[in-house]
Write the structure tokens for this entry.
Amino acid sequence: MRTSQPKTIYLSEYQVPAYLVDHVDLRFELFEEGARVHSTLSVRRNPESPNRSGQFELDGDSLLKLESAALDGRALEEGEYTAGSSGMVVPGVPDEFELNVVTWLEPQNNTRLEGLYKSSGMFCTQCEAEGFRCITYFPDRPDVMSRYRTRVEADLAHYPVLLSNGNDVDRGELGDGRHFVTWEDPFPKPSYLFALVAGDLVEKKDAFTTESGREIDLRMYVEPRNAQKCDHALASLKRAMRWDEEVYGREYDLNIFMIVAVDDFNMGAMENKGLNIFNSSCVLASEDTATDIAFERIESIVAHEYFHNWSGNRVTCRDWFQLSLKEGFTVFRDTEFSSDVGSATVKRIEDVTMLRTAQFAEDAGPMAHPVRPSSYMEITNFYTLTIYEKGAEVVRMIRTLLGPELFRQGSDLYFDRHDGQAVTTDDFVRAMEDASGRDLSQFRLWYEQAGTPVLKVTDDYDSARGVYSLTIRQHIPDTPGQKNKLPQHIPFGVGLLDSHGNSLPLQMSASDEAEITERVLELTDAEHIFEFHGLAERPVPSLLRGFTAPVRLVYPWTREQSMFLMSHDPDGFNRWDAGQRLAVDVINSLVGKPSETPVEPRLVTAYRSLISNAELDQALVAKMLLLPSEAYLFEITDEADVQAIHTARNRVLNELALTLRDELVACYHRNHQSGPYELTPQAIAQRALRNTALAWLLHINDDEGRELALRQFQEAGNMTDQSGALRALVNSDFEDDRERALESFYQQWQKDPQVIEQWFSIQTSSPRAGRLANVRALLEHEAFDWKNPNKVRSVIGGFAGQNLVQFHNPDASGYQFLAEQICRLDDSNPQIAARLVSPLTRWRKFARLYREGMKAALEKVRDKEGLSADVYEVVHKSLAD
Ligand code: B3K
Ligand code: ZN
């Protein structure tokens, strides 16, 4: 049990900083036994602060050991300051002064992976959100922006590459086999964007010429074994740089842009100014080791971090409550980039799938918070799907309401007005208002109110008047600490189809002669009635086209309507959504029913025409074929019984695979690829279709499917096909083949950590192979490493987060297992431990059978000795009444 409750921080208590730091001069002496950091801060009193205490306060951490401190060149004596694990206070300072602080750290023992630490023999940093205080005492808050000069000193043989932010301005040898490099970053930045890397790395060079003709040096630094895995990231970076110029008018500002790959990293990547640091799995790729999904993810993350250079670095956040200012906007930007370079419909389907499955769950659970939260205990717990994905949806809605031109003017104004400043989400919205002349005051509620709005839609057709009407009611559910919410401003895309599938003109009154067939309705009241005139028959509505708002839509769909829209809706997203709805309806109708209950034959017919139709956009077909996930089915069910949902879904999958077996074999062969590996949407879609066909055939243990899988596994020329075959075998009942394939895959790839991560997660997420005993055995495997977050995520996260049927064993063994691992990780890496709590947090949503076991596991974690603030917050909020 933790003895003290961590402090809650409130937005309402925000105060401007009492002191500003104009310059930061850092000198790092890096050794095997530790690192000494000399910091010189040029400080002045903030004229805008009413605080006249004359007391300079700096943040700190238990990882710091203070060696000395001096003010304006004079060493501070004991009694002239206080310093401890949470910070340092220097009273009686003048209005302007220089403070020197020398600290000693042990990066080699830093398992939290924040601040300065070592990974595979290299030094690296992670400062967002509050890691800089683990390096030196500093007012570690984003509204303190400074110019940094950083000198890094280390042994030349072991650390030939020494990097920090900005441009390298000096370098030389120091004797004793040591050397130094000095970096200067001309742009003022908050401390969370500071970075340092030192290691024996190879450099891959590239270049980019900006719109205005400046030549930028692009450099990627990786361990020598990864030298062949850089091309995709560099190509993605150049595409992103060009795109940001063309679409947002944003040009890169420094002369150098660097990317470093690090194996041990708590999240995906970090946008440090001029020196982005990536988790190896989010940046390194070659066709034989990375799947198509990994290639796409890398492209979007490289773009995301690059886009932060404007949305995040040049214009940053005033405080961490504003996190979505940079994250929501930047996710929106990277999403649009991916839509432009790939298939826009497919990208939207992927994003909405994630949003509806995981963000809606967060928004309905104990950790629900607004896009701009008003309190937190541990900020690292707030890097959430709500801040990122819902935040991006909020920006998307602004663009929908303003239209692309005014939105661009708004973003230009935002960047011009706030360049070099630390601002709020409100400043962002104001720039959009000022540029467009639109009033977004009600829209701001999207930032303030948590919870997913529910839209209940009913309709009516008056044949005598030829009028079709839609009634839309909105309601926002209560969330922790927020009740009785106000209606929000919601853009609602709509179209109407006649019985032949033609789009109908949307005439909103008897005199309206409009010919447009798609509109965005604006909802601002709790209830609206919209009329559509001049209709000779009752139309089929296509609602919330393109998913114009992150809401739950409730409408009494008939299966006929869904099937009709599945083949006729001109909106690709809604076509897919209609198919999902039909599948959900069929699966749900089988939950808890006897096994002989027939499966809706029209679903089979609809899937048959999808599989056999080579004319349709194959990328869309590949998505439409995927049945809704168990996680999604679970999310939309109250008192969910995981095992019953799993059984019903499996039943539908079996029926589809057995009935369409010949079509699946034909689809498999039709999508055979010869020739070189290509990353075009068509080629990706073909591989996806082929691997789905294989997965289905192996799901029913088909013998021909087995032959195809074994051959594909042996002969595959790329990782998408090889791991697709492996996954299919692992999810089949061909146990001998499964074991042999797993063993041979391991032998082939054991030296490649990124591939071994996949090898782990293919097993732990498999309903057939991922039984608890197997997962426990993997924790003992030679390739498993408790200190490496990727391995922890692929084994423990793969099981608890993606293998619903095994994790939710009614005997509660899965829950106890997870609680054990969380407790174990809490001591070494609390951020990762806190993330792993997530599968337990929604225990109240489960059927009785599961609830008590989940709760008991949370209580076990709660009672752990010396629980971290990170885990404390999630566990206590989950258990709160
Ligand atoms: N800004 C970082 C995330 C930092 C997480 C700190 N716990 C990566 C990103 O969103 O681009
Ligand atoms: Zn980001």
The two ends are 19 Å apart (CA to CA). The domain at 9-307 is CATH 2.60.40.1730 (Immunoglobulin-like).
